Amino acid sequence: MFDSLFPYTAAEEVTFFVDLILPIPVPKLFTYRVPRDMAGLLKIGARVIVPFGKSRVMTAIVARMHNHPPAKYQARYVLELLDEYPLVTSYQLELFNWMAEYYMCCVGEVMNVALPSGLKITSQSKVQYNPDFDYPELLTKEEWDLLKELQKHPALSYEELGRLVGEVHVPAMIKSLVGKRAVIVFEEVREKYVPKMVRKIRLHANYENREQLLMLINRLEKLPKQQEVVMRYLRYVPVQINPATNQKGLDKTVLNQDDELSQSSLQTLIKNEVFETFEVIQPRFSDTGITPQVEIRLTDAQQGAINKVTTLFQERDVVLFHGITGSGKTEIYIRLIQQALEGGSQVLYLLPEIALTTQIVVRLQKVFGDKMGIYHSKFSDNERVEVWKGIISGQYQFVIGVRSAVFLPFDNLGLIIVDEEHETSYKQHDPAPRYHARDVAIMLAHWQKAKVLLGSATPSVESYYHAQQKRYGLVELFQRYGQATLPNIRLVNVRQERKQKTMKNEFSSALLQELEMNLDRKEQSILFQNRRGYSPYLQCEDCDWTSECPNCAVSLTYHMRAAELRCHYCGHKEEVPRLCPVCGSTKVKTVGFGTEKIEDQLQILFPQARIQRMDLDTTRTKNAYQQIIKEFEEGQVDILVGTQMITKGLDFDNVSLVGIFDADRLIHYPEFRATERAFQMITQVSGRAGRRADRQGKVLIQTSNPEQAILQKVLENDYFGLYQEEVTERQNFNYPPFSRIIKLTIRHQEQVISRQAANKLAADLAEKLGSNRVLGPEEPLVERIRNQFLYDILIKLERDKINIKAVKAFIQECITTILTDKGLRAVSVVIDVDPL
């Protein structure tokens, strides 16, 4: 407690200070003075409001408390305390500091990402009439009308004033009125989080008594509508039997659900004080209506895997669970979660994609009911705040969420499950901190003495290497659940089919035949193309013009439904040209294909089929994922077309066919992890097929080169063979897991300055680290984004025999030298530790 640390009496003049984390990218904490009336109330981890700069106010977190004023500036006062109890735990503060150090960013940047927006205050400009104003003759007619409107209210926002006076130039008028000292403009600070309120109704306390209630009913005999409203209330709330039930009341909508007359009668009864209205806070995650079914049936293989995991947890903090697709990993997770909760610990279950939460949440709710919290970015700010506060209050002991869930205020974690641990979605790319949720989860578990289970059918090379080196425990399960078998995978040579002219648009004859047979059998199909939109770009056949983004060095993707060209990097949009903008030719054609084009062609090829698409364009709204998956599960969709979001852990019994387009593009990506990722993605999407024991699924992979080694390993489901080749090659060229990589991206609007800064930074780094450790600078694949020219520098550092903390400090020094150079100040440097 703050007051116990610094006791004082009324006779003593002791000034207290706090060091605060502010949500801004500055390396140090800021010290503020504590008002005397707050001295005994502040706690580490609580939020406060403080002034910053000339006119800004911010939410800050108390990190330290002391009585030492800052040496180099005058401390300003804390304005307001937001929390009676801390909303950020000591474990979270430790995590924030570790992430800032490890990912080479500022602790304020970590705080800004960690806290949901609903826990950060906002300020809104308000205008009020100045009572000391005595010069009305200075005002125009419009200004006088606005001032008269202001006199009717304590204060109004710019938007509210605009609505009242119907004037589009309100900001300019207010500026003029401020100059004439007719109004006062101030910042109203308010918290974003607003509890959900429900209006309810109850009988006035005078009628809780049985005798008084009977007298009321008799008195209303001549007013049958009003009497019916009272009787309806009593049917739901048995006041005459138990008067205490009246205090909880009844939702107002229940009483006026029938007709306008009953609504009018209810209003009259409220006016006559027979009923009274009141508001209560209603949790946004109310009862799901799902009755928990605790019993989970496990096969002998699954039970054996659980026993191995439990045994390994006695000697290892992290266990890698390598289970093939369809092996029943979720049931194993459920049993382990139950064991942890029964032991009184908290559990965090991480998933890489929101799309995955949709299906798994329903399965978990059947076991855990409303005791489980859900946390992801599609939820509103208010919903996320309620989960955050629900963990602190003990309402949720178990939370399932995406990568940002690692920031939740757990203080008693017993188990963290990282499902599909190999997925790149766990890595945040922008803004800082550019963290990997899997690695952060392992550190979080370390501080809370918790265990971590990493699960995947295709583990990352790094995780499998750590398991082989005995840093992690390893449990493997190579048997599908319920006697189901792995699908039959077939490679289709599209180069050969094109020569034979048996292709129809992007579809091989083999895939079309299988789709048709699947439709006849009333079975479902999934088609995977890892590129959204209709076509990657437009091209003129006469002059070779291509549609390019004016802000980025990429082509504009054609989206047919929206009838626009769109940049997937900066969001720039253009209308689709009818003629070539360069030569005026009418021969403008689409090149390549995305999910939208496949969907369009399917509707032509199979007009009777029910087709749905799941990609970023069709899942922008909050409940879009759930709706698409629900329709597919219920058999309302025959063919589901999608990007990589359909590859991850979805479980559909009736899917017997998977088609994979453009496999070569996945394999031949210029990046050292390309082979690993292609194997993971193809294997994962293949695993969606044939999950029932009574039939084997089929997978067709369309490729121009079926002899590629990676595709042969997919056919044989040879993960270990892939791992051995990958780990050997990475050791030869000193790539992870044998080294650590830090990527620096230099950005500037002028290419010359960006190149100059990158060359200087690389030279400064190489001078001390050596040219063998510093690679570049090189232009990335996309060398210009949002009108900024980019250059990458890769720093490869040995895992052992190097002081990584000292190296990071040196890198920061070199970056600071660049950023303080007078000619290079406008340059920005993005630091990405452990890039993917």
From TrEMBL:
Organism superkingdom: Bacteria
HAMAP family attached to this UniProt entry: PriA (MF_00983)
Function: Initiates the restart of stalled replication forks, which reloads the replicative helicase on sites other than the origin of replication. Recognizes and binds to abandoned replication forks and remodels them to uncover a helicase loading site. Promotes assembly of the primosome at these replication forks.
Needed co-factor(s): Zn(2+)
Domain Helicase C-terminal: start-end pairs: 575-734
Coiled coil region boundaries: 505-532
PROSITE patterns to which the protein is assigned, alphabetical: HELICASE_ATP_BIND_1, HELICASE_CTER
Protein EC: 5.6.2.4
Residues the record lists as binding Zn(2+) 1: C540, C543, C580, C583
Family: Belongs to the helicase family. PriA subfamily.
Cofactor note text: Binds 2 zinc ions per subunit.
Protein name (record): Replication restart protein PriA
Quaternary assembly: Component of the replication restart primosome.
Catalyzed chemical reaction(s): Couples ATP hydrolysis with the unwinding of duplex DNA by translocating in the 3'-5' direction; ATP + H2O = ADP + phosphate + H(+)
Keywords of this entry: ATP-binding, Coiled coil, DNA replication, DNA-binding, Helicase, Hydrolase, Isomerase, Metal-binding, Nucleotide-binding, Primosome, Zinc
Chain positions recorded as Zn(2+) 2 binding sites: C549, C552, C567, C570
Occurrences of domain Helicase ATP-binding (ranges): 310-477
Keyword Nucleotide-binding: yes
